[in-house]
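Protocol step 6 of 9: fold each sequence in the batch and record its C-alpha cells directly after the sequence line. For illustration, a two-sequence batch is reproduced in full.

Sequence one:
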Amino acid sequence: MSFLDRFLKRADKPPEWASFFNSGEFARFIQVVDSEMARSKVAFRIDPAAGMIHAEEPGKADGNTFGLLNVAQMCAQSPKIEWAHIVHEHFERLLKSRTESESSMSAFQDSFELARPMLKLRLYPADSPADPSVVYSPAEEMIAALVYDLPNTVMTVSKDHVSAWGIPREDLFRIALDNLRSEPGIVQSSFDLPEGCKLHALTGDSFFTASRALLLEEHLPTPLPAFGALVAMPNRHTVLFHPITDKCCRTALNAMLGMAQGLYKDGPGSISSSIYWWREAAWWHEGQFTRFPSTLVNNKINLEIPTEFTAQVLDKLT
C-alpha cells in the first residue's frame, strides 16, 4: 500500500484546505490527480495534507511545487464525471504556461515596450509568495501584485525586470491599473435586499475581476458616496459592493458577510472572506480598505465593527 493510499485510508475527514469535500469526494479527487500526474510521466509526490504536488524537473534542484486548492474548488463545483477532464486541463495549462513564460521572460526584461501591454495588477491573499518590490497592500489580508497577463498564464513580475527597466514602482502600478480598465468580460449587476437595500456585484471569468475593486470609484454613483462603500473580494471572479448612503448598510453588511464566506470557500482563486470599508483615496494608498474582522464559531459568523466605522458612519447616518 502506497503512502497516498495509507493517508486516504486513515483520514476520517478532508484536511482544512479541502473542507468543501466530504471524505469520499476528497479521496476521489486525490486519486484523479494521482492518475493524471502518473499519465504525464513527471516524477512527483502528492502531499494531500498540505494540498501540494512536488514535481521533479531536470536541472532544478528543488523541482516545482503546485497547489491543489484552485483545481479542487473547480471540481467541487462540477459533476464527478467531469473531474478527470478538469484536472487534465488544469495541469496541461500549467505545463504550457511554463514553456510560454520561459520564452517570454528574457524578452520582457530586455524591452519594457514589449512588457508594458502585459502588465496588470492582481489581488492575492497576503500570504502569497511575491517579492515586496512588486506588490503593495491595499487591505489587511491581501496584496496587489504586479503581474504579466500572458495568453495561458499569469506570472508575477520579477524584481530583476523592474530593476532593469528603471521605472518607478508607482508608475508601473499606474500602467498596470490602466491596462486593467480594458479587461473584457466583467459584468456589473445588482439585486434587491430587504428594506429597499441594493447590493451590487462585479463578476466574470477573468482572473482580474476582483482587481476591479482597485477601481471601485468607477463603479459607484456620482458624486461618490460621502461615507464610502462596503466591499468584499472573496475570490478572483467576484467583487460585492454597497454604496453607503443610509442605515440600510447594516442590512447589506449582514448579507455580504454570508455571501463572502461562501464564495471564499467555494473559490476558485480564494482571496479573502472579509468585508471591507472603502473610502476614496489615491489608488496606491496602503490600507485603502479597512477590514471588518470576523470569526466563525460553531457555524456562526461573529463580526467585529471597527470603532472608526461606528463613529464616522453608523453614528452619523439617519
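Sequence two, same batch, same settings:
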Amino acid sequence: MAYTTIDDPSEYFHTQLYTGTGSTNAITNDANAGNFKPDWLWIKQRNTTRSHRLITSSFSSTYLQSNLSDAEASNDVVNSLDTDGFTLSSPASVNQSSGTYVAWQWKANGGTTSSNTDGSITSTVQANTTAGFSIVTYTGTGSNATVGHGLGKPLKFLIIKDRDASEGWIINSQILTGTTNGTLHFNTDAEYSGPSTQFQGTNPTSSVFYIGTAGNANTSGDNHIAYCFAEIKGYSKFGTYTGNGSADGTFVYTGFKPAYVLIKALDRTVEWTVMDNARDTFNPAAKQLSPNASDREYADAEHHAERDFLSNGFKLRGNANATNASSSNNYIYMAFAEHPFVSSKGVPATAR
C-alpha cells in the first residue's frame, strides 16, 4: 500500500504571497500542480496592522475575521474566487498599494454544495474526502444536536463560527487533548477551557459532529459555519506536543515536510502562531502571524518561536511561551504538507 494518496499537496493547500495595487488585482496561484479555486481563502496583510479576512466559497458574498468575534460582513474585498486564484477589489485590508500580503488557501469542492441529512440538523456541505476537508453550514436549534460533515472519517480538527452574531470562534480541541468538552477560541489568546456546553463532551464520528446548547456553536435560528478536517497521511496532521523550554526544542513528527504549521498553547494565555514555507523558504522559519491578532508580521527571533521545517516534521528552535515554554506546557498544532515524507512512488522528501 502506498504511503500516501496525495503526492503533491499543493493540489489542495497553497500559500500565495502577493503585493497590493490599490485597484482591481487578479492573483494567480503559483502552486506546483493544482492551480485551484480556493474554497477557503484566508488573507492577512503582513507589513502593517490589519484584521484577517476569511472568504468561503459556500457564501462568498460575506467575509469573517479570525481575530474578531464579529458577525460576517458584506464582502467588498474579493471580487471573485477563480479557477487558479482570486481577484481582489480595492480595499486596503487586502489590496493596499505596495502592501504585502499572504493568502492561505484550501480546496474543498469548488463551491458545489449538497444537502446532508446524517445529523439531526440538515446541513449544507461541500466536501473533499481526498484531502479530508469539508465546509459545513447549518442553522442552529439551541438544543443538543448532531451535524453531518460529509468526510466519511472521524474529524481531528473542528472550527465553528456563528455567522449572524458577535460570538467567539470555537475550536473543538477535545478531539486531540482527550479532555472532555474543552474549547479554544481563534479570536482570543485564552488558554484551553472546559468543560463547556459547545460539544456535548462527545467526539465526532465519521459522519457527524456533536453540538451543545452554547450560542457560539448552536444559537437557535442563527447561521453557523464549520470548517472540518480529517487527517490524511502524508498531507495533514493535527496533534499535541509538550515543550522543553530549550533552543534545542521539541521535535514533532508529522510524516511530511510542512508547508504550514499553526500552534496554540493549551495551558497559557498566549497568542496563536502560524508560519509557512512561502514567507520563510529557509530554516529556521521565523516570520510569524497570529490568527487572534491584527498585528503586522514580525521576524520571530524577536519572540524566540523559530522552528525548522524538516522532511518528516518540525522542530522548535526557541523557548517562546507561544510554542515551547517548558516541559510543563502543552500545545496543539495543525499542519499541512509541502511534500509527503515518501510519495506513493517511493520518492522521499528532501530537507530544506
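Proceed to step 7 once all outputs are recorded. Observation for sequence two: The chain is about 5% helix and 35% strand.
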